[in-house]
Amino acid sequence: MLNNRPPQGAYVRRWSEFKWLPGALEALRLLNQSGYRVAIVSNQAGIGRGLMTETDLQDIHTRMSAEAEAAGGRIEQIYYCPHDWNHGCECRKPKPGMLFQAQRELNLDLSRTMFFGDDERDGEAADNAGCVFVRVSEEKSLIESVRDLLRTQTAEGMEHHAKANIDNRP
Ligand SMILES: [Zn+2]
User: Fold this and answer.
1) Which of 30, 71, 164, 170 has its CA 20 to 30 A from that of 84?
2) How many angstroms is it from 91 CA to the middle of ligand 1?
3) How far does residue 10's CA lie from ligand 1's centre (Å)?
């Protein structure tokens, strides 16, 4: 949702395979400038399946965060589930484990947290955690959704926490 999805069954395993989607950095900048806090919640079963290491993923996260900051955005925290889908863990979306972890660590009010996602599991995770889900798709990209949100916010004088989501596993 922030980056191009690799083909089914493939993973973004190194920075050279990571490609921001058009408007993604701009969306992060607008959210930051508007006072929203951004965290990322992603399933990374490629680690559990032995296709990449946590070091590989952390390198990608470090570079993502640096590029976001260079563009005026800020990623406060990145949560990921490293487990294989057979593992039965509590963190892999659609389970809400990572969202509850973010709630505890970032002191979020989940009922006022927006979860932007492009996957059914994102929507289910948001429901399971009591977040507001914003569906992002090819027809309506993250940047369009963020612009809509900020227009609404301006109109209503509302204040929300935002949660962006990245899922580089299909
Ligand atoms: Zn997990």
Assistant:
1) 164
2) 4
3) 18
**pTM attached to this predicted model:** 0.88
Kindly report, residue by residue over 61-104, the tens digit of the pLDDT: 999 999 999 999 999 999 999 999 999 999 999 999 999 999 99
**Ligand 1 centre distance from Cα of residue 17 (Å):** 23
How far apart are alpha carbons 42 and 79 in whole angstroms?
6
Q: CATH code at 152?
A: 3.40.50.1000
Domain count, the chain: 1
Q: How far apart are CA 78 and CA 9, in angstroms?
A: 22
Give 43 Cα–ligand 1 centroid separation in angstroms: 8
Tens of pLDDT, residue by residue over 113-145, are: 999 999 999 999 999 999 999 999 989 999 999
Residues with CB under 5 A from ligand 1 (ion): 81, 83, 89, 91-92
Q: Is residue 105 part of a domain?
A: yes
